[in-house]
Amino acid sequence: MTCPKVISNALYQVQSRVTRLVHDSQNQFANYQYVSIDAYYEAVRPWLNEAGLLLIPNEREAQISPDGKTQKVVFDFIVMHKDGEVWDTPIQRTVYLPYTGAQSSGSALSYAEKFVMRTLFKIPTGETEVEAQPPANPAQTAPPAQDADAMATVRGGQDAELDFDYSGAPYRIFNADKGVKQTFSDIRPWGTMLKNMIHKANGNAKAKLIKANEAEIERVRSDVQIDQSLTEKARNTLSASLESIIPSEESNDAS
Amino acid sequence: MTNAFETHGIGYLSPSKLNQWITQPALCLLNIAGIRDEIASPAAWRGQGADRAAAKAAFDPSVADDDLITLAEQIFADKQSQSIDEIPEDKIDKERKALADYVRNAAQFYRDLGEEPESDQGKVTVMLEDIPVPFIGYYDLLYHDKVRDTKTVGRMVSSLTAAASRQASLYAHATKREPWIDYVGKKEVRAFRVERVDYWTHQLVLAAKSLERVLSHSDDILECCQMVYPDLDHWMWGDTTRAAASDIWNMENK
């Protein structure tokens, strides 16, 4: 491994400027705070510019697990100086995260990029260490992770934000603890099962269940409105079904 | 202490639910999870229309066949309008055209009984041995000494089915009347008296205990589903439940 002197000097320059980053975001599903990618950019970019350093991500490999629930993405981060010198050993990061659709790759990149910056420049953020986290529920986790980054992600780590900015399947049902209970490739079983779960639950459990599923219901509601493949009759029927999942007074109680 | 039925939100059992459990256990568990095919087939719309017309004829034999057929067609059209599935027109036409024959046969059969029912669509509620939730069902027609259930069939049967016997026996157990099943076809009506009411009622209890044991496996109905495997060739599976089965039993992935 050969690192050009101009790059090692620049890396040291950035590291010497580092200050602590504060949590600026709240993960509403796993109920923890984290530092967003924007906060990293805001803090780190001036230090990088000053040192003339570039961090260029390159997605080398992406796979979805056989059960369709987990995505693995391997990134190479190329470290380059503004004058053209390149470190010949890219920094590799492998991320495992719950696969929730096309946007999962974006989430993986954010997570990987943050961890590269955090570990490369030793940026303190107050994130919980992997070793300090409780053992995960085997039924809800991915296959054995290959590095600490991946384990942290799968266990609901720093950047396990769920994506609601996609169209169509998978249609997800969340349990009251905001974990994904079941995914469906078809909207109909998703809707009927979710409605059944909410109607069967009582009291506080019902309110938590509604809260956990509100964002997904809203995502599907928007999706139905813009889906050009639906007939008007089908759209109206689906919209009415979506409205019935959460009775109006319960929706108000949960918000 | 909460029993397994209540844990899964089952406040009562019905003969149809237990018949489904016996025939298609995976589909039954999906229904308990809230997943069902809400829109029935044209054959089911035909059955619902013909049943209502038959009951009307039973109460008022003077109602003309044409009026009964109009009633049945209205019910058929209502059911069709609620469907969002794309059903081939020829299938719908086939059942709609057959409706008149079913109604005429059923109306004539109930007129010929020469007896006016005491009630129709009556609810029965009974507790059976060792089962912690009640059995609830709705009979079609209650007479002075008989309780009758009307079943329209595309193909006429030569004998009583076990499923119909279990269902009628529950009504008989609750009403203390003689159970009859009237199979209405396009060409004829065949009526069967159900024998051995106690035997068939006990079959319901055994089936309920079997279901209770599977439901006791987990508080999560999707975990209970994994104890059985779906038979998607069966006609009872529709688009919604097939799609759900594919995901819940992870059929598309090795």
The radius of gyration computed from the alpha-carbon positions of chain A, rounded to a whole number of angstroms, is: 21 Å
Strand order of the largest sheet of chain B: 1-2-3-4-5
How far is it from the N-terminal to the C-terminal residue of chain B, by CA? 40 Å
| Bulk shape of chain A | elongated
Helix share of residues of chain B? 40-55%
What gap, in angstroms, lies between the N and C termini of chain A? 55 Å
Low-pLDDT residue intervals, each spanning 5 or more residues of chain A: 129-160
Query: Major beta sheet of chain A, specifics?
Result: 3 strands, antiparallel
Radius of gyration of chain B from CA coordinates: 19 Å
Given helix and strand content, the structural type of chain B is alpha+beta
Strand content of chain A: 15-25%
Globular, elongated, flat, extended or rod-shaped: what is the shape of chain B?
globular
- Percentage of residues in helical conformation of chain A: 40-55%
Q: Strands of the biggest beta sheet of chain A: in what spatial order?
A: 3-4-5
H/E series of chain B: HHHHHHEEEHEEHHH
Helices of chain A, by number, come to 8
Oligomeric composition of the shown chains: heterodimer
Give your account of this protein's structure.
The complex is a heterodimer of chains A (255) and B (254). Helices cover 44% and strands 18% of the residues of chain A. Chain A has helices spanning 5-17, 37-51, 104-121, 148-154, 187-200, 203-226, 232-245, 248-254; strands at residues 25-27, 32-34, 53-64, 70-81, 91-98, 171-174, 180-184. The termini of chain A are far apart. Chain B is α+β, with helices and mostly antiparallel strands and 254 residues long. Helix content of chain B is 50%, strand content 14%. Chain B contains 10 helices and 5 strands. Chain B has a 5-stranded mixed β-sheet. In chain B, helix 2 packs across helix 8 (197-215) and helix 4 packs antiparallel against helix 5 (65-81). The longest helix of chain B has 24 residues, at 89-112. The chains are: A alpha+beta (255), B alpha+beta (254). Chain A binds chain B through residues 66-68, 181-186, 188-189, 192-197, 199-200, 233-234, 237-238, and chain B through 9, 30, 33-36, 38, 84, 222, 239-241, 243-244, 246-248, 250, 252-254.
